[in-house]
Amino acid sequence: MSLAGKTILMSGGSRGIGLAIALRAAADGANIAMLAKTDTPHPKLEGTIHTAAEQIRAAGGQALAIVGDVRDDSDITEAVMKTQGEFGGIDIVVNNASVIDLSRSLDLDPKKYDLMQDVNVRGTFMLSRAAVPMLKDAENPHILSLSPPLNPTPKWLGAHTGYTLAKFGMTMATLGLAAEFARDGIAANTLWPRTTIATAAVQNLLGGDKVMAASRTPDIYADAAYQVLVQPAGSYTGQTLIVEDVLETAGVTDFSGYAAIPGTPDAALFPDIFLD
Fold this sequence. Notes:
This protein has 276 residues and is α/β, with parallel strands linked by helices. The protein contains ten helices and seven strands. It has helices spanning 16-26, 49-58, 73-87, 110-135, 154-157, 161-180, 200-205, 208-213, 218-229, 243-249, and strands spanning 7-11, 31-36, 62-67, 92-95, 142-145, 187-192, 240-242. The protein has a seven-stranded parallel β-sheet, sandwiched between helices. β2 (31-36), α2 (49-58) and β3 form a beta-alpha-beta unit. The chain starts with 6 loop residues before the first strand and ends in a 27-residue tail after the last helix.
């Protein structure tokens, strides 16, 4: 039940949920390689790949900041090779990078549709695929994608079809990899929360302060991801997991400490758009 010495290759991770997952692993002494574009500060978003690396080291882990784009095949190849060169292999791939646009179909810019497909679906598939040769040599290899279960409820599928296709595409790619590489002992699962998570995306795109106040912190996602990644890969694969279910199985039944505003009751939390 430890990620000590394990090497994680993550897409994104400069802030939010990805960074929380990285910091949780770093507390065990894990090595974190991040492939992300945020080389310089954003005027509206806190954190870069370099500040994230500093936090990972301060938390007890090793960090490798790789500036690149998960849409670029050469950047993916470089990230895999740099990670192997720095840490000697890859044990875990976390597909964290994701683009969100909740526009309705007639309002969705075609370029934004393509961007969501390229980052969410293609990026998940290509980064995972590139790491497979190293994962085959790992002791307990995992692929974890931050995407929802396949629940095509008309309420949400019709609300933002383009985004839903992209997130479901991440899940389909992950489940396909789970089936394809099961004989190699590589686990591939997805993980998704029951409530919204207090991140910049929620702040800017899902309703601002009101929804942020009714969300849980990224730490709940990180703690659940940790529980997934320490499971035996040979038997814990091909699942679309829910954050709270994973934690409950691990013995956590009180989630009040994860409320973005302490004391917020579960009934007041904003439900996730794919699970409500």
